[in-house]
Design brief:
With 285 residues, this protein is an alpha/beta fold. The protein contains eight helices and 15 strands. The strands form three sheets. Strands 2-3-1-4-11-5 form a six-stranded mixed sheet. It has a five-stranded mixed sheet with strand order 8-7-9-6-10. A four-stranded antiparallel sheet has the order 13-14-12-15. The relative contact order is 0.14.
Length: 285
């Protein structure tokens, strides 16, 4: 049977979160230090550990069949590569930053300036869209030091917390795009490998849905059950079970993590008591 070849970043936060996701979907990888690839013990998958910037070309050439990669890298280098699932982790944004001392008011202030970046295609497209002419200096590595050593007037780089910009006396002035980890596939994929990918994607959806949701259990007097059910979104409908104490019911449901506190407040206002909230490992819909 064929094995699906999946590329992940060889090190860093994206690597760690990618391997955690594979573990959560039941794929056990035996990977040692400095290995370039490793096979799963219990699934037809082979994992390749690659430099993030090299992965798009490997996908195009069919050297790997799929990849967990930053969306920003695909936008820069992955023309023609399809994203089949956004994964919700390793979130960042691609931004233009300038020295704090620069009197920056609008994007036209970048006209004629020198911009250091590892994302020349992304930056050039953004500048062209806004009618700005600037000189791009392509740098790999620590882009944020460029203004301090006189190499550039501004930079464009990925930003997560903004702490690196702060340490280098830079301020964010333009956000070009938002990015997160995605599951991307090679345009060269046969039916057998597509079937394996479909199974992986099904498992990923179950894990991601679980991460986005909370399981809630509560007690309520029977005359409040209807009001509480109207508050709970559930999957199809909440589960209602009678308690040993007459006149009371236990209600079970699922709520979105993003709406959690607002829903809890409404539940309490509608008579819910003894509310228990549990994490959900996976949701198979």
């Amino acid at each position: 049977m064929s094995k699906l070849r999946i590329a992940v970043q060889k090190s860093g936060r994206l690597h760690d979160e990618s391997m955690e996701l594979l573990k959560d979907i039941g794929i056990s990888i035996d990977n040692g230090i400095d290995q370039l690839k490793a096979s799963a013990r219990n699934f037809p998958v082979e994992v390749f550990y690659l430099r993030n910037g090299d992965i798009p070309q490997y996908l195009k050439d069919g050297v790997v069949d799929a990849a967990i990669i930053g969306e920003n890298v695909l936008i820069e280098k992955g023309d023609g590569i399809n994203i089949v699932e956004k994964l919700g982790f390793s979130k960042c944004r691609v931004c233009i930053a300038v020295p704090k001392t620069m009197d920056y008011k609008q994007i036209s202030d970048l006209d004629g300036k020198r911009i250091a970046t590892s994302y020349p295609n992304t930056v050039q497209s953004y500048l062209d869209t806004n009618g700005i002419s600037a000189n791009l200096h392509i740098i790999t590595g620590s882009v944020e030091i460029a203004p301090n050593i006189g190499l550039a007037d501004a930079i464009c780089d990925i930003v997560s917390s903004g702490s690196t910009l702060f340490k280098n006396n830079l301020k964010e002035v333009e956000m070009i795009l938002k990015s997160e980890a995605v599951l991307a596939v090679s345009p060269i994929l046969d039916e057998e490998k597509q079937a394996i990918l479909d199974k992986i994607q099904f498992r990923i959806k179950s894990v991601l849905k679980g991460r986005e949701s909370k399981y809630v259990l509560l007690n309520a007097p029977n005359d409040k059950v209807k009001d509480i059910i109207n508050v709970l979104p559930g999957m199809k409908s909440p589960t209602v079970l009678p308690l040993a104490e007459a006149g009371w019911s236990s209600i079970h449901s699922v709520i979105s993590k993003n709406e959690f506190w607002d829903v809890i407040d409404e539940l309490k206002a509608n008579g819910a008591q003894g509310i228990l909230v549990c994490p959900i490992e996976k949701m198979v819909l």
